[in-house]
Structures are given as C-alpha cells and as structure tokens.
Specification:
156 residues, globular, Immunoglobulin-like, 4-stranded antiparallel β-sheet
C-alpha cells in the first residue's frame, strides 16, 4: 500500500510539471481591432491579438455571436507543444464583457511553428465595446517522448 502511495505521489508531481500556465492582464487598446502584446511561457509566445466584433447569428432557435479574438502563437522550443488559451475582457468596473477559450487546432504546435488561434465569444460578447482590460491565460504542455505516455486529445 505504501509503495502505491509513493508511486501515485510521484506520478502526480510529474503530471503537474508537464503542463505549465501563465496569466497576464493587459490594457484593452486595439487599433482597428489589432493589438501587439507580449506573453511568453518558456519558449512559447503570444505576440498579437485581434478582436473581431460580429453580429448575432441564428443557429436554430438560438442566437450566438461570431465575435472572437484571434491570437498569434509561436513555438521556439525544441519540441512540439499543445497550447490552450483563455481570454476574458473586462469593463471599467471589472465586469466580464467577453469570454472564451480554445487551443491549437492540430493538437501540437511544432518547433519553429506559428499558428493563429481563434477564441470565440459565442454568448458573452454584447458589451465588448466597453472593454478596458483583458486577461489571457496560456497553458503549454510539451509532447511526451516516444517512451512516455501517449498524448491526450486536445479537444480540437
């Protein structure tokens, strides 16, 4: 029993070290929707965000939005990584005016690779024009080696 607990504790430590996360808040100051930013985790970077405000779209009996933020990712690390991104826009009072999350489409961003990731704001978006700040969270998980466990699906 004790060996099992020690092994489980070691596994929990190795799993928690595999995926890393960083969060940063920026002033909302896009010019024509485009804003240069700097957010890095290890050697994975986000250097631009484009806010696109769209109109409601009817999807059956429901209305949703095509509003989104498109982020430019880069991977200067020596190995492939899975990247998750969350975006939350806030008004002057700290109220959330847009929120969404997404990640790398093909699962892994290859070394030296660049990719645009679209974060949709399907339901909370109507007050995006009132945004004064936005918070980004980036989550990076290196691809396990061939000897390691198989990668989990990224949901894309």
């Amino acid at each position: 029993m004790r060996r099992a607990l020690v092994a489980a504790a070691g596994l929990a430590v190795s799993v928690s070290l595999a995926a890393q996360q960083r969060t940063k808040t920026f002033d909302y100051k896009p010019v024509d929707g485009i804003q240069s930013i700097q957010l890095a985790l290890d050697e994975v970077t986000v250097d631009q965000i484009v806010f696109r405000t769209a109109k409601d779209v009817a999807t059956g009996p429901r209305l949703r939005s095509n509003s989104e933020a498109v982020l430019r990712l880069g991977n200067a690390s020596p190995g492939p990584v899975a990247v998750g991104i969350a975006v939350v826009a806030l008004d002057e009072g700290g109220n959330i005016v847009a929120a969404g999350s997404g990640g790398t489409r093909a699962g892994w961003l290859l070394p030296g690779g660049r990719e645009s990731v679209a974060i949709r704001f399907p339901y909370v978006y109507r007050n995006l024009a009132k945004a004064r700040k936005f918070t980004l969270t980036i989550e990076v998980e290196p691809k396990p080696s061939a000897a390691g466990p198989a990668p989990e699906a990224t949901g894309q």
